[in-house]
Amino acid sequence: MINSFIEYLIQEKNYSPLTVKAYEGDIREFQKFNAAQFEQESINEVTYTQIRTWIVNLSEQKISNRSINRKVSSLRAYYRFLLKLELISENPLAKHKALKVSKKQQLPFSKSEMDELFKLFSVENSFVGLRNQLIIELFYATGIRRIELVNLKLSDINLDNKTLKVLGKRNKERILPLIGSIQSEFKLYLAKRKEVEKAESESYLFLTEKGAKIYETLVYRVINEYFSKVSSKVKRSPHMIRHTFATHLLNQGANLNAVKELLGHSSLAATQVYTHNSINELKKVYSKTHPRSKNM
Fold first, then answer.
1. 145 noted as active-site residue
2. pTM of this prediction?
3. Which CATH architecture has domain 2-84?
4. Spatial contact of 129 and 123, defined as CB atoms under 8 Å apart
5. Which of 150, 142, 153 is nearest to 178 (CA)?
6. Catalytically annotated residue among 80, 165, 169, 233
7. Where are the domains of the chain?
8. 243 is catalytic
């Protein structure tokens, strides 16, 4: 049934290949442990005690609580799938509580770091240079996810209306506005793109030098390469630009609900994680401008 579950994640949930690989790895890991520990090949009907033994074993290996929670989350999703198909009567993880983890605040890139980054963008004529710069511009202009960018198609762009159609999680579609300054970047890139496109990938917006559809690892490398020149932050990734996009909008007074829609979040709770840095910014402004702030 594990193979059926993986197919379900790909076809119905539209999860990225990396996410699917992580889910499968976690479930196979438990399957292997269960077979060795309890001599039970199938994991379709296990008790919480068996899963708890696995969790303890992971902890004894000094694996972080955050990583353990992710592994258990994969397993929980698998049993929900079995429950949906009525192959089991109860999810063995129904009453499991996640292990406590310390909350590490992820600082977004500052406005000055972004300004320094864009100063690096010279007048580019090469396909790769134009593509990489547009990737970064698009991340910062829209806040889209890495997998959303990878799957963008030419038909998703409407430069006349200044909009971008994005297919997000659970196949949820959203239309995003495109700022005027990015349109010239698009036109330069699209002109060069014609030189490398191939029939099998011609519908996709971003391509490799060989004309194939771009892939997630390459996008990560592009972001890391550029941001390493302007930032000393350890985490330099597409998600951090998404984080930066949301934080900078909120710092400028954007409505939380509007940011939620732009990010494609299903609930405000997911968006509120970005408000912490915005509140800090407001505190700075408040302390500098309020007449009695020095007495507080």
1. yes
2. 0.63
3. Orthogonal Bundle (1.10)
4. no
5. 142
6. 169
7. 2-84, 111-286
8. no
